Amino acid sequence: MLPSLNCIKKEIDNLILILEPLLPLVNSHMVDYFINSRYKTSVPLPLQNDICNIGCDNAIDILLKGTPNPCAFHLNDYINRAKSCQLYNLSMVCLSQSDLHRKFFEWGGGDVESLKLKVFVTEKKSHEIELLTKVVATIYNISKTTHIIDVGCGKGYLSSLLALHHQIPVLGVDSSLLHTDGAIKRARLLEKAWKGFQHNPYKSLPSKTEDNLTKIDHLYKQVTQFVTEDTDFEQLISDIFLQRSTNFGLVGLHTCGDLAAACIKMYNRNNNLKTLCNVSCCYNLLNEEFESVNSKSTHSFGFPLSAHLRNKRFKLGHIALMLSAQPVDRILNRKELPSKILFYRSVLEVILEKYNICKSKRQVGKVKKKCENFVEYVHICLKNINVKLDLSNDELMKVYHEYETYENQLYVFYLLRCMLAPLIEAIILLDRLLFLHENGHANAFLTQLFDPIISPRCYALISLKR
């Protein structure tokens, strides 16, 4: 059964109730961990008491392994509540794979053959396009659309498979000329090896292809264009395919930031756009309507979309949006702590603060070189920001040793924050789902499409106008 409008509202409100008391933790920067005493000011006191009782090493063990500790009731409860907020555990608003297949069968989708592409692509991309191609082809069969538009098509792997394996006319749209030019070349190479490739997915592709127009040129076409919610897709189809269409679908694999919201808004108001299948990413690039920096902007915002949250003037904040991108399932699966660089950076901030270095000059960026120790890290960072400090290596190490005993506490703080990433992601995606239901799209739903360990942004928002 698909979720109802009231059910989605209720789930969003429940998630916000859980999130609100934890906003100080969510909106804490790791960089200023020491200078702003983030652990003391942002971690709820019951959690601090539990962590004090069992020690930071044991707290890290519980957070990474999920094994309850009888001496840490509040920490156990925190972990359980955080996990319960993951969309794939919210069965009332997020369809399981079996529910998705059942619904597609009910709508007459039939059995669509999948194919795993194992050349040209990483394991992650192979996993994504295998599963998404099958879903998009099924939606295409149900809706009988004439064309699929692949927004943010990138290198064109998804479009190529839809065209070659499922014979679907696809228009790939991307803002990068480099992507669209390269996509058709890869598609032609793929087609040239197609017959052998179908029987041997590991088969290498040929290095050259003929100049004459091939079959895929008629099915898969590209255009370089920046997509906004005002993009005229009907005209694009007419211009590129030389055909008129009043019945087409929209797909996006990892559409970035506001682009996902733009696709949803277009689907809502364009009667000719019959289907939507969107897997989004880069929530940190969303423009929030009620963030103070945007309060007087005329920009079309990416969050919130629903009237329910807009009426509340709800906002998450940029740091929360950054946090939402953390790959929690992967972190827990690998039982991995962050790089020691995270600790180094927090200690460096203490030094920069002590010497009154202007905050605008503290953007050290990513340190690509692997640093052997804290001193080397500091020298690289100071060079990056063109700052000279009258500090010897011994003095730098003295500061480092002063904070070294708090390193594991910082990692506990990091993991506590990471556990909340799926909660923020759930609010963002449920807001989009609610927007569609508020506007009468009762056949809209969320589903977990990918393995979150392989592909952390694993949820698809799907809608069909039936």
Automatic annotation (TrEMBL):
Boundaries of every Methyltransferase domain copy: 124-288
A Pfam cross-reference name: Methyltransf_32
Name of the molecule in the record: Methyltransferase domain-containing protein
Organism: Photinus pyralis (Common eastern firefly)
